[in-house]
Amino acid sequence: MPRPGEDELIARYFAPLAGPGALALKDDAALLAPPPGHDLVLTADAIVAGVHFLPDDPPGAIGRKALGVNLSDLAAKGADPLGFLLTLALPADWTEAWLAGFCSGLGGMARELACPLLGGDTVRTSGPLSISVTALGAVPAGRMVRRTAAAPGQAICVTGTIGDAALGLALARAEAGLDPEPGWAQALSAAERAFLLDRYRNPQPRTALAASLRRHAKAAMDVSDGLAGDLAKMLRASGVSGTLALDRVPLSPAAQAALAATPDLLPGLVSGGDDYEILLTAAPDGLDALAREAAALGIGFAVLGEVRSGPEPLAILRNGAPYPLSAGSFQHF
């Protein structure tokens, strides 16, 4: 049975995801007006098979991740989503069933977080499946939370739990036959395994916290490449130093079980990436309000350290003593 052409693909799979500004995906461009008194916030991220996800990951999960990683960036800036553009480069062996699953996951994330499709492009590639999303959001004028505003005396904080996605990736690679199953996997219950796999495949952008971040955060970014490395980036961008207490890093029960079985997992948990939590700094007198507002949304919140003055590298501590960490984050190059 022949595969549908591009126009039919757009009408069947992408038009149902489109918002009013997409003009039913029948024009060459979209229209978008930011709310009065607001700035536009734009971000773009690409994900590539074999680099950011496994080729055999469920197509719905790939769709959710493609949009979710971008909405995580908007959340860290205190921005509310407005819409997104999608470029999808399909390899020669794509199937209509795969595309239907991908759009189901993509559309689910778009509906849940009120971020409709505005337009994009679909092309064929001789390389691996590649997906690029540009997400657009809005913040009240002048209120975007930048990563360059960390200052001495502020607390360093993070939402949620850290390291789950790195463990989930290890489980997924074992399930796909790419790596042996890690020894710590035997210490997990079936529910804990499922939780870790979901944390790897299904990022949960903290968009619900955007307003709280605008009120209380001084600097922020999302944790995409690893907690330790991303914190070091934010401090360098702000021209300051700081501390990270590893014993304060929030771990899920599943990650705690894995760490108890294999104590040398700790470096990987704080450098593995794909957490998509919010890393932020806040004044000490704003911490209680932030914690309360996060708890009301069912989101964890932890204080990890303190911003300090000076050009020194990030000080990573465990039980108060320096802790060597060879790699702080995922590196593309």
TrEMBL record:
Keyword Ubl conjugation: no
TM region(s), chain numbering: none
Amino acids binding Mg(2+) 3: D28, D73, D222
Domain of life of the source: Bacteria
Keywords: ATP-binding, Kinase, Magnesium, Metal-binding, Nucleotide-binding, Thiamine biosynthesis, Transferase
GO biological process: thiamine biosynthetic process; thiamine diphosphate biosynthetic process
Pathway where this protein functions: Cofactor biosynthesis; thiamine diphosphate biosynthesis; thiamine diphosphate from thiamine phosphate: step 1/1
Positions bound to ATP: G120, D121, R147, S224
Binding site for Mg(2+) 5: D225
Residues annotated to bind Mg(2+) 1: D45, D121
Family label: Belongs to the thiamine-monophosphate kinase family.
NCBIfam families in the cross-refs: thiL
Miscellaneous comment: Reaction mechanism of ThiL seems to utilize a direct, inline transfer of the gamma-phosphate of ATP to TMP rather than a phosphorylated enzyme intermediate.
Function: Catalyzes the ATP-dependent phosphorylation of thiamine-monophosphate (TMP) to form thiamine-pyrophosphate (TPP), the active form of vitamin B1.
Name of the protein this chain belongs to: Thiamine-monophosphate kinase
Species, as recorded: Enterovirga aerilata
Protein encoded by which gene: thiL
